[in-house]
Amino acid sequence: MKRILLSIAFVLTANLLFAQKGSLTGILLDSANHKTTLNYATVSVFKGADTILSTYKLSDDKGVFKINNLEIGTKYRLVINAWMYNILRKEITITAAEPNLNLGNVLLSEKRNNLNEVVILSERPPVIVRKDTIEFNTESFKTLPTAVVEDLLKKLPGVTVGADGTIQVNGKPVSRILVDGKEFFGGDQQMATKNLPSNIIDKVSISNDAEATRRDPDLVAGNTPQVINLKLKKAIKQGAFGKLYAGLGLDKRFESGGIMNFFRDTTQVSVLGYGNNINKPGFSIGDVSRIGGFSRAGINQVNINGDSYSLNGIGFGGSATGIQKSAGSGANFNTLTKKGIKINGKYFFGYVDNLTEQFTSNDQNLGNDKLYTLANNDKRNRGTNHNFGAKLDWKIDSLTSFTFEPTVTLNLLKNLDYEVTDSKNGSNQLVNSSVNSSNFRSDNADYSLLLSLWKDGKKAGRTFNTSVSVTQKDNLSDNFNNSITNFFNPSSTNTLDQLRDNNIRNFGVFLTANYTEPISKKLSLRFILNGNYIDNENALYTFYKNPLNQIYDIAIPTLSQTVQQSGYKANGRINLRWKATKDLIIQPGIVLNTINLENSFSSFPSFKQNFQFIAGSLTINYKAYSFSYTPSFREPSVSYIQPVTNNTNPLLLQLGNSNLLPARSHQMNLNVYKYDTKRNMSYNINANGSLQNDGVIMERTIVNGVQTNRPINADGILQFHTNGSINKDFKTAKRQFTLGGGYYFNYNRNIVSVNGNSSFSHIYQGAPRINGRINLNDKLELGQSYSLGFNKSNYENSFFNDISFFTHNSETELIVRLPKKMVWETNFRYMYSTQEIGGVSNNQKLWNAGLTFLFMKNDRAQLKFTVNDILNQNFRRYIYITENAVRDFQTNNLGRHALVTLTYNIQNFGQKVGGKDTMFRF
């Protein structure tokens, strides 16, 4: 009932807000040449003599403009600004007799002198378009006193800010944010958007990233990165900003943290620290990537799971499952020398301790029978991480730049696992039961060094860049396993008490080189070479516990093996770029792959992997359309070719296969992007597919509930994915309304092989989605989204049974900023699956609510009361189809908990930082 009322309110409010009253249309033309239309000019509307902007609109690519929602009987003043043309002012009135006023052709005269134009301050246009630059005057876009630049950007037409802080302008990604034309904090865009107060910004200008276009001339319009330049009301030379927070709740729940940034001219120092036991990161991924220095030192690996995430293998707290304690601290340093050399240094420490209770049910169909496995798993995972890094960017001259980047990551993991498993057949008879405990410890060290050089030729279009990366990874792990497995038909018992000592050492040198040579204005050649030298060792030693001395010293040769892999891989490409027309670029090419690897074993014959692969490639770009075909060639993983059984799970044995061949893939991608300036609407469709031969699948054998997997090669593996979205924005000075929708669809054709029965499996997954959001002058925000997902699989062999189920996901968010200094917010999420497994409810209803009190100057201090998971749905559930089975994961969660948190936001610009009496002056 609650969701229905909210949806009705959403629709009624939208209809009330955007019902048409009157409209104004016209076509902007050059007064001297009526065939020349004035595109992307700004039409501003003021009420009579009022100096407050009512609304505005940009003319489209044909010079046409249309402004809706104008009041009947009201006198308006139009102010029209077009680049290189004189300002036109015009008085108009919308009447009941002519509510839709058409001005016809509106003529503007071209400027005839180079004198700076005097603009009346009260008539500053909200938007000015100058050639390829859009400039917004911030006074036309009201924000809250506590607002930062990110809040301001959300107000601007055509600008969207994602949940992770990424920014798009008219659907194009923003690559850099400048402050007064200079890079701010090492060029990290979110440092500026999430921390600079919006009230110090005078103008926001947006233009194409000339450097990105220079480096990749094949960029289509929809993918051309944008640069945002924040022009300040007064120059910022030194200051500090950040936040401190602390919170307490029942059952000893707590959170605390602080993040501070100090800057003076071109030098910046950032520090952070946090700790909590409420399953949340100490800071957002944007905060850590910025303040922790990862965005400047390079992010090579990102893993996101709900609210939790890790960067470069380092976790920062937060968990969608279990009950977690986490803590972390770090520091980051950035400076710019007088010679233009950017220097960055960082260190980060992280600690995570997670308790998880997991219930897994796996329903696997096997012809006239089935294997139904239930597992209860208790885990405790603890980990500490240390990350040291530095980066040096040197722009040697206008054509040459050099980068030097060393990184060291140290990681220590300790995992305890206790699992009880029961397996039943299709007659509901117990096949086996197992109790398995393990103690896993891992000590990892990663070292890397990256050197890169970029050189532009004096001849337009000639470029050369190369990079060399050297990596050394050492992973030392011990896994103690103790298990007892009972089988019932026939009756037997299997016990296991062993140690798997696994030492992995990987060394690699990666070389990349690109050279582009222009042949003519329309033709150019591009040569690309990627080389990789590897020297890897995987040493596995397995020991049984000696009952006499209780020490693991009985070596098991059949479960021990050392694998050494060395050699090189190379990928070379030659592309011919032909710019057929202004909008059409065709780029055919040839791809050559070479693999020369030698694999040595301590107790098996060694063998070599020598393969060559040659194929054609093609890329076509036409306006907003982009198509590419690329072949690839990849050798099997060392873990698949190691001829030793992994028996850490007695009910799931993993074999190796040293006869695997490299996988050959053919990949195609299609992208379509369109942004309609006139309607403030964007469209986006992506599609990609691949056909793989000699791909790796698992050939499975199931006996008495014990599953044995053996990797083999298979042909005809097909994958296809497509997604799309459409979004329309209605933005005025005091209200915003966004309506959107989208979809995703996945199709996978793979091969399932169980007990000698093989079949192509066809798995379909997809979900349409609709979403909308209303913002009324920042007093009320209402958001709603809904998606309907489907999951279906069918098989060509009757040994396997078809599977299908649906999922429903709905999320509602409400924020009310009334009365003044108070913020009410609530979020409700509903999830439902039609798949029945284990007799557990498929409904999940997650409801959170909070109340925030704002106080002190500029609302710097905030006292927030929150209640999470009000309905106490203290479990999370994930259901999906894999091969011939439906797998259902259910895990514990923190459940209902309340918290009171005090946050103090620090903003200090142009004032002295520090002092002998106080740490900061604010």
Describe the structure.
The protein is mainly β and 922 residues long. It contains 7 helices and 51 strands. It starts with a helix and ends in a 13-residue tail after the last strand. Mean pLDDT is 82; it is low at 10-19, 114-121, 289-301 and 910-922.
Features:
single chain; 922 residues; mainly beta; 26-stranded antiparallel beta barrel; eight-stranded mixed β-sheet; 7 helices; 51 strands; 5% helix
List the helices and strands and how they pair.
Layout: H1 2-18, E1 23-30, E2 42-47, E3 53-58, E4 64-67, E5 75-81, E6 88-93, E7 100-108, E8 127-130, E9 133-137, H2 149-155, E10 159-161, E11 167-169, E12 172-179, E13 182-183, H3 189-193, E14 201-208, H4 210-215, E15 226-232, E16 238-249, E17 254-264, E18 267-276, H5 285-291, H6 294-297, E19 302-305, E20 308-311, E21 314-315, E22 323-336, E23 341-366, E24 369-397, E25 400-424, E26 430-456, E27 463-488, E28 491-518, E29 523-546, E30 551-555, E31 561-579, E32 584-601, E33 607-622, E34 625-634, H7 638-641, E35 646-649, E36 652-654, E37 663-676, E38 681-693, E39 695-703, E40 706-714, E41 717-731, E42 735-754, E43 757-776, E44 780-795, E45 803-816, E46 822-833, E47 843-855, E48 861-868, E49 875-882, E50 885-892, E51 897-909
Parallel strand pairs: 1-7, 12-15, 36-40, 39-42
Antiparallel strand pairs: 1-4, 2-3, 2-5, 5-6, 8-9, 9-14, 10-11, 11-12, 12-13, 14-15, 16-17, 16-51, 17-18, 18-22, 19-20, 20-21, 22-23, 23-24, 23-50, 24-25, 25-26, 26-27, 27-28, 28-29, 29-30, 29-31, 31-32, 32-33, 33-34, 34-37, 35-36, 37-38, 38-41, 39-40, 41-42, 42-43, 43-44, 44-45, 45-46, 46-47, ...
